[in-house]
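Q: Structure tokens for this one, please.
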Amino acid sequence: GYVGLVSGTCFADIGNQVYCVDKNISKINKLNSGISPIYEPGLNELIKKNYLAKRLIFTTNLKKAVNSSDIIFICVGTPSKKGSLKVDLSYVYKSVKEVISASRSKKIIVTKSTVPIGTGDEIDKIIKRKKRKNLEAISNPEFLREGEAIRDFIFPDRIVVGSNDKKSNRIMKNLYAPLISKGAHYINTSRRAAELIKYASNAFLATKISYINEIANLCEKVDVDIKDISLGMGTDQRIGERFLRAGPAYGGSCFPKDTRALIDTANLFKTNLSIVKTVVKSND
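A: Here is the predicted structure, written as tokens:
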């Protein structure tokens, strides 16, 4: 998938040997022929470079990939359930079970996919039910924008790792050392906090988009250029200029799904997220 291919290629480019596993044989064959199934500026060149250097391996053989690796990233889709605020986590749990079955030694299982709070707890339960004490579940959410994904990976604002296990945290910090040396902030939190950071961040950005769009509606009524408003607001360092461009309602694969999933989590824990609810309504 998108997150897995970009992350795997970039991890290889900073010096790791990476196995990218997919059940889709056609997709793996294409990648082994140097053809990327997705378009992302600069990705094809990076794939070819690291494939030729034998740091990047594309395979359908999960068992070999898992047992040749120390860290396993789960990068599967987490779509919204039809007609619901809830997230479909079946792909995540199925992948975790397959990794556990394939694993023969100590591994760190990292959730890279965007998942609701408590998903890591459920993965822990799966690990315990399988009686595997040598597997550690942690959260490491991705913050990649389509079209800017490679730049976002190599020069991230922050790297968030949710783990209470000191050894796993040390291993993850070492993995990301080349990016930390370039100025990335490494943030170690609880696993639940890491899961929530991704949703909280996306909901806040969605709020900025909806807010400036509502101000743009007012500007049209009072004959004011919204670009002047965006500039005047954006130069305030407390607000910042990014995500203050008026335009169509937000869409894409993340904001609609993540704002609704955050509302569902709040409902589950009997908390009223009135601002996020209003953002969703305004955007609609």
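A few notes: Residues 227 and 245 are 8 Å apart (CA to CA). The two ends are 28 Å apart (CA to CA).
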